[in-house]
UniProtKB/TrEMBL annotation:
The chain crosses the membrane at residues 58-76, 88-108, 152-174, 186-206, 267-285, 315-336, 348-366, 616-638, 644-666. Its main location: membrane. It comes from Balaenoptera musculus (Blue whale). Pfam families: PTR2. This is Solute carrier family 15 member 2.
Length: 698
């Protein structure tokens, strides 16, 4: 005898174990029409949402634009550490949306999370804002205006990149062009984005009365987790061949959870499965603010009509997004459609991945060319040596080996600028070299110790009627991160204090004292203030270019007072920063096809009760992508161009996997979930007496 009849199943479905576990769905928010923009079908409320997003993104991207260089210049971290912390921060910002989505869908609702959590606590606020703001904007549209809602997501993404464009351009200027306490003004660069967050709060609150505010629908995240766990455990307990199979593994939760929740979870898990390959795309895209910025520091930012700082190159991404979104929506997609090609959302995302692969292949090519143009580095048991003759006449320099054999012989004029370093080979990791210096009719012998893989300058100076020499080690990091490095030799008989606009003055001892290195921004330095015990004066250092290293010898041999003799012994970066344009164009085109499409796809495929949850899951893929970069940066021993190739190949493989998964994915309309709930949950018939479902009520 059947325990359940068909007609009885329809009228008396299984109920939850207790009413507290799955609360009934609240009624839908009022369907009253909201005010429209100039008679269109676009709700007026989205204006406040879009402007709020502009301000919030200005704050976020403005802060991120200077973050990597803040780690490098201000905190003096290494490139790998700076990259790792940058991506760890980005990853945290995209992990917290899971918490924000849970609060929004289950407790406060999207509107209250945006205003109370997101804009009050910046650190956790990112998690409150990201999963809610896009979905909240989508909630402002009525179902009959689905086409306008799709365009809204493009406008929404435009506002993101408009804020990013302005902030990425302005905040590096605030950092570099304004001085705070004698150094780069990071306080102002971080303070202005903070002010924009306050403006975002005010603008968002202004639209409060006209928003359509869907109420929270219970603790949806907990319900989803419990529903999945119950389905798995129930299926595991009932493995008997006598128990009929069910169409879907989640149908095993039917004894405890409502049909509609099960259908919502089915729709959610189908999309989440499709999200598995996505983090690799974000791993590439988010390196614009780390690895690509570091690549820009080894390039020349002088474009002739404008000089770009390395961290300002990121402005290309939002600028190109503003151009590409209307170009793709109004031109490219329509042309593809007229050609009879069904360019679905998933196909657009796959093409976006391929474009990102090409972008990193181009970045690897640029990196190889940069390495070819960079000065050579000494290998094991090698040193680089240059000679600086500060005597008043020519000096013949001979470097002698252990067996008095000549390793290097040069005749160097007074204040002659050497074109390059000379490479000398060592027999061990450290070695003593003997030098013979011929000056007029004198021969002076001296000895200096050197270590492998180092750069050295032998400075020859007058010593009464004779000459002497001193060996100075040139620091390896003298041209780090695209800045200009300099050091001074003081030939005066007084100590000099030099003000370079940094946190403290640079002091150079008298009588051929050699200063430490000091790094400054690229630019013209026509009058650098200097001071001795008896007088103040200024030095004209001229143009200090990207990546170059200079030696200035301060002399007083003219009636014009102290002067600076300038020698560039590490040339400026030769490759123009404009060569990064192709890789930025490719990755931005990929972002438009992948990210904008994925944002709308996530909303359209989400059940009404789980839109913020699915938006948070989309953002979670960004967090995982940043973790991938963090791991590679910390544990990979590859040179930079090989690392770019590695990421490109990995994304290509992931793209193939995603394309196969997308081929078998059938997009659904959220309204179909409700209509098909009764049809797709299998009717539980037959002899079910042995089904193990503890504490299940009928």
């Amino acid at each position: 005898m059947n325990l359940f009849q068909k007609n009885e199943f329809k009228e008396t479905p299984f109920l939850p174990v207790s009413p507290e576990e799955v609360p009934p769905r609240p009624p839908s928010f009022p369907k009253k029409p909201s005010p429209k923009i100039c008679g269109s079908n676009y709700p007026l409320s989205i204006v406040f949402i879009v402007v709020n997003e502009f301000c919030e993104r200005f704050s976020y991207y403005g802060m991120k634009a200077v973050l990597t260089l803040y780690f490098l210049y201000f905190l003096h971290w290494s490139e790998d550490t700076s990259t790792s912390v940058y991506h760890a921060f980005s990853s945290l910002c995209y992990f917290t949306p899971i918490l924000g989505a849970a609060i929004a869908d289950s407790w406060l609702g999207k509107f209250k999370v945006l205003s109370m959590v997101g804009l009050s606590l910046i650190a956790l606020g990112t998690g409150g804002i990201k999963p809610c703001v896009a979905a909240f904007g989508g909630d402002q549209f009525e179902e009959k205006h689905a086409e306008e809602r799709t365009r809204y997501f493009s406008v929404f993404y435009l506002s993101i990149n408009a804020g990013s464009l302005i902030s990425t351009f302005v905040t590096p200027m605030l950092r570099g062009d304004v001085q705070c306490f004698g150094k780069d003004c990071y306080a102002l660069a971080f303070g202005v984005p903070g002010l924009l967050m306050v403006i975002a709060l005010v603008v968002f609150a202004m639209g409060s009365k006209i928003y359509r505010k869907p109420p929270p629908e219970g603790n949806i995240v907990t319900q989803v987790v419990k529903c999945i766990w119950f389905a798995i455990s129930n299926r595991f307990k009932n493995r008997s061949a006598d128990i009929p199979k069910r169409e879907h593994w989640l149908d095993w939760a039917a004894e405890k959870y409502p049909r509609q929740l099960i259908m919502d979870v089915k729709a959610l898990t189908r999309v989440l499965f499709l999200y598995i390959p996505l983090p690799m795309f974000w791993a590439l895209l988010d390196q614009q603010g780390s690895r690509w910025t570091l690549q820009a520091t080894r390039m020349n930012g002088n474009l002739g009509f404008f000089v770009l700082q390395p961290d300002q190159m990121q402005v290309l991404n939002p600028f190109l997004v503003l151009i590409f979104i209307p170009l793709f929506d109004l031109v490219i997609y329509r042309l593809v459609s007229k050609c009879g090609i069904n360019f679905t959302s998933l196909r657009k995302m796959a093409v976006g991945m391929i474009l990102a692969c090409l972008a990193f292949a181009v970045a690897a090519t640029v990196e190889i060319k940069i390495n070819e143009m960079a000065p050579p580095q000494p290998d094991s048991q090698e040193i680089f040596l240059q000679v600086l003759n500060l005597a008043d006449n020519e000096v013949e320099v001979t470097v002698l080996g252990d067996e008095n054999n000549s390793l290097l012989a040069e005749s160097i004029k007074s204040f002659q600028k050497m074109p390059h370093y000379s490479r000398l080979h060592l027999k061990t990791k450290s070695q003593n070299f003997h030098f013979q210096l011929k000056y007029h009719n004198l021969s002076v012998y001296t000895e200096h110790s050197v270590e492998e893989k180092k750069w050295y300058t032998l400075i020859i100076r007058e010593d009464g009627k004779s000459i002497s020499s001193m060996m100075v080690k040139d620091e390896e990091n003298k041209t780090t991160n695209g800045m200009t490095a300099m050091r001074f030799v003081n030939t005066l008989h007084e100590e000099i204090s030099i003000s370079l606009g940094t946190d403290s003055s640079l002091r150079v001892e008298e009588d051929y004292g050699v200063s430490a290195y000091r790094s400054v921004q690229r630019g013209e330095y026509p009058a650098v203030p200097c001071r001795t015990k008896n007088e103040d004066f200024s030095l004209n250092l001229g143009l200090l270019d990207f990546g170059a290293a200079y030696l200035f010898v301060i002399t007083n041999s003219t009636s014009q007072g102290p002067q600076a003799w300038k020698m560039e012994y590490i040339p400026a970066n030769k490759m123009s920063i404009a060569w990064q344009l192709p890789q930025y164009a490719l990755v931005t085109a990929g972002e438009v096809m992948f990210s904008v499409t994925g944002l709308e796809f996530s909303y359209s495929q989400a059940p009404s009760s789980m839109k913020s949850v699915l938006q948070a899951a989309w953002l979670l893929t960004v967090a995982v992508g940043n973790i991938i970069v963090l791991i590679v940066a910390q544990f990979s021993s590859l040179v930079q161009w090989a690392e770019f190739i590695l990421f490109s190949c990995l994304l290509l493989v992931v793209c193939l996997i995603f394309s196969i998964m997308g081929h078998y994915y059938v997009p659904i309309k959220p309204e179909d979930i409700q209509g098909s709930a009764d049809k797709q949950i299998p009717k539980i018939q037959g002899n079910m007496i042995n089904l193990e479902t503890k504490k299940t009520k009928l």
